[in-house]
Structures are given as C-alpha cells and as structure tokens.
Fold this sequence. Notes:
Blueprint: E1 11-13, H1 19-31, E2 36-42, H2 46-60, E3 65-78, E4 81-93
Parallel strand pairs: 1-2
Antiparallel strand pairs: 2-4, 3-4
Amino acid sequence: MAEQQEAKPNVVLVGKKPVMNYVVACVTFFNQGINNIVLKARGAAISKAVDVAELLKRAFVKDLVVKNISIGTEIVERESRKSNVSTIEISIEKPAA
C-alpha cells in the first residue's frame, strides 16, 4: 500500500490561478470553523499571496490578523541545474467570535 502525504488542512498553496480562487478557499476554511490559515507561495506567486491576504483583510474578513510572515529560499533542480527560488508563508488568523 502506497503511503500518501497529506497536506495540512489549513494550508493554501498559491500558484497560477486567479487571486479570487484563493480568497474563496480561505473564506471557505473560515466558514468551516478553521481560524488559522497559512498561505504559501514560491517565486512569481509571492505577490499573489500578498494580494490574497490583503484582499481578505480589507474586503472579506474585517477583523483578520496577520500573525506571522516567513520568507526563505528553496533550492530547486530543473533540467540538471540548481536554482534558488524565493518562498513566503503568511499566517493569518480570524479571532474567535
């Protein structure tokens, strides 16, 4: 039996989709009772992750709190060469009502 790696239920991986897709995913988490969400992005998607956090904070969840922002670098191997890719993790929290 193959072992599958389970993603944490409160992590939203930001990529190539439109910003509103990630906003809806976060709002869905909040509506399910999850109060802490981590937005993760790499490379060009970093600005999109920041947009998601700001849009949530300004338009959808007025009392949203940005708890932590972590930045870093990952080494990615592409076509037998290594390159550095920037990463960001934005932890957001909706205070319990």
